[in-house]
Task: inverse folding
């Protein structure tokens, strides 16, 4: 039980985490109807699907540092700590930390002769953070190692948001089921958002002689929505937060598009683009702005100085023109792209190569997965290896989907190895769920040759 | 077979989690999170003018301001004891007496006979010295007159005090002295009275003469007999007077200006090394409203150095009596200022100040109507006063050669250094002064023991001086002060810092003096590179 709790803490409390692709979950394809959230062209193998409310969820975390680098244990020390020096030593030119929590609140699927309809509701929260070497260098060493040079905070991006979506989807087969095209339309309601404006940069240059600081800020705006209501709830009515989360003006219509094509009997190609759309944040908006500035700070006038701390803060702050506004802003949804090529050794055995790319942040590296799945009559299993960037470890994932009776249990992990010595890994995800599924037999293909074993 | 595989998969999945190796996170807690950056911080700058710089060495004893040449000048001012009129001069009680014989022999005349006698008397006022008064306006006092007669007949008399007036005019007393009767006695108030002593009994101008005319008549009846030597005796006194104004000549008398101990705390911060001032002065300022000139004798002006050595002021200004002027009779009520300057031309004052004195002992004598001053008509009013003050004026035109100055400053930041592991202070000096300095920092504990020393090192460089006597550059210098962790741990216990500065002016070795002009500035830019180890958990 303690291990379970520890795992739960690692999964849910891991703030520097980074998650993206649900690559293993993707491999469950037509077996699990929730995969339509990744590829709208997937059509379930049964007639009617009803998800178990609140029992379909997933967490993805992924970073560029291993857990033992983030929470290190110095020699001779019992407790864990955050060692900025260690984090700096493993930092790359650009580093990413991502977290994704997805909950399928409701899913209703209905298969037709040539396709499938779906009605769904999801809630999703993401945190995406990107930082350059400069930021970690500053956190680890201050500017003491950069006297006479510049610490560039360029590349620091942050985006966090939470939203809910309600939509319908439809997939249809063509060309004797060799081609399937699917689309989903959904009403997305943004709840919380926080991000730096595009092109937000800053740098700190420390003069070599008198250590004077030259601080340059460009596009220094942080846009938020809903966070003031969340963190300053005492300033609002008791039910304001609940009312806001249930419905507000931060709405948009978004789409998921997907297709899969089987040009050869053994080859299948899939492509999907999800979360196409943008939110115009209008309600509960706060913009924290700092005008473009190149300020030089040479210290205080020490003559008669009394409260040095306050004076230092005031003097430095006085170099910048900052304000708070409430102007609406627009953000694109973090579009996710999946491209997959699958080779069927048999009808039940499939190798897949999957590419995943998210647009949550600029230059977010892509994920790759090489998977093998075998399908039994009542379930499908698979293993896969996932990979992101040259410095990151290669992970081994697994997935399982069953259709035992009307109850479907599924789970998928991109990095099953994280369960053993998780400190050695930088990626973890877990996707699981329960569905009620009916009508398998109608769509199961009859074997062309008699099964002697069955007889 | 398929069911077996399924069972295996389910079992493997269920058992996967409990078989995890989570030792890294087991039985442990998150410990302290340590943030140990090295921060290079531009702390700030402070600019000293020459006046402000020397104000740091001054404990309020000196006024620091530019002189007419714009050279910063230290001025120490002390007020000497004032001499008041009442303390300088008092009017002695005056008592005169005489008798006036009848001059007639007459015995039992057949009819009543009247004999008249009159005499003008002139008395000299008693004085403490050689003063001679023409007149005195009294503010208090009394005039007392007594008369008696041994004449064998009744006497009626009139005493006219020519030299004395009360508020109603000349004082005249009348009375009767019956034969064999009691003596006559009468007093008059001298409040607002006036003594006129400027004429003699011949009506000629004189001084300190008190005139009184005694007249009496003798009524000799048939039963009376008088002789020529029988007489009327009288006494008069001017007692317990205070004066409002006196005219005449107060003579040659001593005035009390007093002795003064002047603290020169400015020099108390100096220790070793040499300092020579080019043009120091001591200026005595006398504001005199007495109506007579004064002679000033600088009896003793002595510089007392920190080591206790006394150097007396010498020179012509000491050898010769100095004169303080007085208002004329038409300037009554006004003050006349006389300034007497002691400088390098008339004394050895430069030697006194070069001894880095911690105090000056000033003892000044004064006398009225000195002999080396032409005689003048004197007056003195009760409101007259002699105010004396002294200004020691030290323009900072000087030569400093290795002069050591010490200043103890409180150090209360020890507790703030607990997170620091290395401190590198960088001091950048931009110096317009022709004065350079080296600095040593001595950190002291509460008992005054030096527990850590930042060794002596150049802090600011003297600027070179051009032909016009002004510096012609800004001398730049940078000094780094590195305090390692072991030093910081020691400094945490310090309560004071003794700043030991060794100062030298430009080309000090050659003996050249430099002028510290008021517009010179010394600017320090302070930066610090602080290595800190901060426990973000607050432990």
Result:
């Amino acid at each position: 039980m303690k291990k379970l709790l520890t795992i739960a803490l690692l999964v849910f409390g891991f703030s520097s985490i980074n998650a993206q692709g649900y690559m293993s979950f993707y491999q469950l394809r037509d077996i699990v109807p929730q995969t339509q959230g990744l590829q709208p062209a997937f059509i379930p193998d049964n007639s009617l699907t009803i998800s178990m409310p609140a029992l379909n969820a997933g967490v993805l975390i992924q970073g560029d540092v291993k857990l033992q680098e983030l929470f290190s244990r110095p020699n001779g020390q019992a407790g864990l700590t955050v060692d900025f020096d260690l984090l700096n030593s493993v930092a790359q030119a650009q580093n990413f930390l991502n977290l994704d929590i997805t909950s399928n609140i409701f899913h209703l699927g209905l298969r037709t002769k040539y396709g499938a309809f779906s009605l769904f509701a999801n809630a999703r929260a993401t945190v995406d953070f990107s930082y350059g070497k400069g930021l970690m260098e500053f956190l680890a060493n201050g500017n003491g190692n950069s006297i006479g040079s510049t610490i560039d905070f360029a590349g620091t991006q942050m985006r966090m948001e939470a939203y809910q979506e309600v939509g319908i989807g439809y997939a249809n087969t063509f060309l004797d089921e060799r081609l399937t095209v699917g689309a989903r339309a959904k009403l997305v309601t943004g709840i919380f958002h926080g991000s730096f404006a595009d092109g937000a940069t800053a740098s700190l240059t420390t003069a070599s002689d008198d250590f004077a600081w030259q601080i340059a800020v460009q596009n220094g705006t942080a846009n938020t929505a809903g966070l003031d209501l969340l963190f300053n709830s005492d300033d609002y009515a008791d039910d304001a937060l609940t009312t806001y989360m249930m419905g507000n003006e931060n709405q948009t219509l978004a789409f998921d598009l997907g297709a899969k094509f089987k040009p050869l009997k053994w080859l299948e190609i899939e492509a999907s683009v999800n979360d196409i759309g943008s939110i115009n944040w209008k309600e509960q908006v706060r913009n924290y702005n700092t005008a473009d500035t190149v300020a030089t700070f040479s210290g205080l006038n020490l003559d008669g100085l009394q409260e040095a701390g306050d004076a230092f803060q005031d003097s430095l702050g006085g170099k910048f023109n900052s304000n708070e506004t409430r102007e609406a802003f627009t953000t694109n949804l973090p579009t996710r792209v999946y491209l997959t090529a699958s080779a069927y050794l048999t009808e039940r055995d499939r190798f897949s190569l999957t590419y995943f790319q998210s647009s949550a942040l600029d230059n977010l590296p892509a994920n790759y997965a090489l998977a093998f799945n075998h399908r039994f009559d009542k379930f499908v299993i698979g293993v896969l290896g996932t990979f992101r960037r040259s410095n990151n470890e290669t992970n081994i994932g697994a997935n399982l989907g069953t259709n035992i009776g009307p109850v479907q249990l599924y789970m998928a992990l991109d990095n099953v190895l994280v369960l053993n010595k998780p400190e050695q890994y930088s990626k973890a995800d877990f996707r699981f769920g329960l569905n009620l599924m009916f009508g398998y037999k109608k769509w199961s293909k009859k074997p062309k040759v008699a099964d002697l074993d069955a007889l | 077979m398929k069911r077996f595989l399924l069972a295996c998969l389910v079992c493997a999945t269920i058992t996967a989690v409990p078989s995890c190796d989570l030792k890294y996170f087991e039985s442990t807690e998150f410990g302290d999170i340590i943030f140990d950056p090295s921060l290079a911080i531009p702390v700030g700058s402070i600019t000293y003018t020459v006046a402000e710089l020397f104000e740091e060495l001054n404990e309020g004893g000196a006024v620091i301001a530019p002189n007419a040449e714009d050279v910063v000048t230290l001025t120490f001012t002390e007020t000497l004891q004032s001499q008041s009129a009442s303390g300088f001069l008092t009017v002695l009680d005056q008592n005169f007496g005489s008798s006036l014989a009848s001059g007639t022999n007459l015995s039992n005349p057949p009819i009543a006979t009247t004999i008249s006698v009159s005499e003008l008397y002139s008395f000299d006022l008693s004085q403490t010295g050689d003063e001679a008064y023409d007149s005195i306006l009294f503010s208090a006092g009394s005039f007392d007159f007594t008369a008696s007669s041994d004449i064998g007949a009744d006497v009626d008399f009139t005493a006219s005090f020519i030299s004395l007036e009360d508020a109603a005019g000349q004082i005249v007393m009348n009375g009767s002295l019956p034969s064999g009767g009691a003596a006559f006695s009468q007093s008059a108030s001298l409040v607002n009275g006036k003594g006129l002593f400027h004429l003699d009994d011949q009506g000629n101008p004189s001084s300190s003469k008190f005139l009184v005319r005694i007249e009496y008549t003798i009524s000799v009846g048939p039963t009376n007999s008088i002789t020529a030597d029988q007489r009327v005796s009288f006494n008069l006194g001017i007692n317990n007077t205070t004066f409002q104004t006196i005219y005449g000549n107060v003579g040659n008398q001593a005035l009390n200006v007093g002795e003064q101990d002047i603290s020169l705390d400015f020099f108390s911060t100096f220790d070793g090394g040499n300092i020579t001032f080019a043009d120091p002065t001591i200026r005595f300022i006398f504001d005199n409203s007495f109506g007579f000139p004064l002679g000033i004798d600088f009896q003793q002006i002595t510089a007392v150095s920190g080591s206790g050595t006394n150097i007396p002021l010498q020179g012509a200004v000491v050898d010769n009596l100095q004169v303080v002027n007085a208002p004329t009779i038409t300037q009554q009520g006004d003050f006349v200022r006389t300034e007497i300057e002691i400088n390098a031309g008339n004394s050895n004052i430069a030697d006194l100040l070069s001894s880095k004195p911690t105090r000056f002992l000033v003892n000044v004598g004064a006398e009225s109507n000195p002999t080396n001053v032409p005689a003048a008509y004197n007056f003195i009013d009760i409101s007259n006063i002699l105010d004396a003050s002294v200004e020691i004026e030290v323009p900072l035109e000087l030569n400093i050669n290795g002069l050591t100055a010490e200043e103890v400053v409180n150090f209360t930041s020890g507790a703030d250094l607990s997170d620091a592991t290395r401190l590198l202070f960088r001091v950048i000096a931009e110096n317009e002064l022709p004065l350079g300095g080296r600095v040593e920092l001595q950190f002291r504990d509460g008992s005054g023991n030096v527990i850590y020393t930042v060794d002596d090192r150049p802090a600011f460089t003297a600027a070179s001086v051009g032909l016009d006597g002004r510096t012609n550059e800004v001398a730049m210098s940078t000094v780094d002060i590195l305090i390692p962790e072991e030093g910081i741990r020691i400094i945490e216990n310090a309560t004071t810092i003794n700043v030991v500065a060794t100062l030298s002016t430009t080309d000090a070795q050659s003996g050249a003096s430099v002028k510290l002009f008021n517009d010179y500035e010394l600017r320090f830019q302070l930066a610090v590179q602080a290595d800190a180890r901060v426990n973000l958990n607050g432990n």
Q: What stands out?
A: The mean pLDDT of chain B is 88. The longest strand of chain B covers residues 231-249.
